[in-house]
């Protein structure tokens, strides 16, 4: 999976570095600097067609790691019923990454996305590479 990710980043022409995470590193731990980290959250939207059948549309929200995603506000803005996907349900949608990790590259994982506009002002970005041992800095 990492080789596919590197190939994708190279084809897109992104300047990036692959960094090895320290053994005890967790960007979610209190005290860790999260300023440059982004994370992905998998979401499901109930979609109705003309026959009143409903299905789930899955997409990614990419947000700064130090911010919480307000699902209620997102549901109001989009006028849809949005739910967080987690655990085994979410893991099945990203089968080539370590359990619990969500890649913050919607085009790479071929999913629609909502991206927090504040990410554009962040400069250097860091995100999980998917193997649990490395991260990408770009």
List how many beta strands DSSP finds: 7
Output the strand order for the largest sheet.
4-2-3-5
Seen as an oligomer or otherwise, the chain set is single chain
Q: On the 0-100 scale, what is the average pLDDT? A: 87
Choose one word for the global shape.
globular
Number of helices: 4
The main sheet comes to: 4 strands, mixed
Beta-strand level of the residues, as a percent range? 25-35%
Class inferred from helices and paired strands: alpha+beta
Instruction: Measure the end-to-end span.
Output: 18 Å
Topology as a string of helices (H) and strands (E) = HEEEHEHHEEE
Radius of gyration: 16 Å
Helix content: 10-25%
Which spans have pLDDT < 50 for at least 5 consecutive residues?
Answer: none
Summarize the structure.
With 138 residues, the chain is of the alpha+beta class.
Q: Topology of this structure?
A:
Layout: H1 2-12, E1 17-20, E2 38-48, E3 54-64, H2 71-78, E4 82-84, H3 87-93, H4 106-109, E5 112-115, E6 126-128, E7 134-137
Parallel strand pairs: 3-5
Antiparallel strand pairs: 1-7, 2-3, 2-4, 6-7
């Amino acid at each position: 999976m990492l080789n596919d990710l590197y190939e994708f980043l190279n084809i897109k022409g992104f300047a990036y570095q692959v960094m090895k995470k320290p053994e005890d590193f967790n960007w979610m731990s209190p005290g860790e600097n999260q300023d440059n980290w982004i994370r992905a959250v998998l979401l499901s939207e109930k979609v109705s067609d003309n026959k009143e059948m409903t299905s789930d549309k899955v997409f990614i929200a990419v947000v700064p790691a130090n911010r919480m995603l307000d699902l209620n506000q997102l549901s109001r803005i989009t006028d849809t019923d949005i739910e967080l996907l987690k655990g085994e349900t979410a893991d099945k949608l990203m089968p080539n990454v370590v359990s619990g990790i969500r890649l913050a590259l919607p085009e790479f994982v071929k999913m629609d996305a909502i991206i927090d506009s504040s990410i554009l002002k962040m400069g250097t970005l860091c995100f999980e590479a998917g193997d649990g041992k490395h991260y990408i800095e770009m």
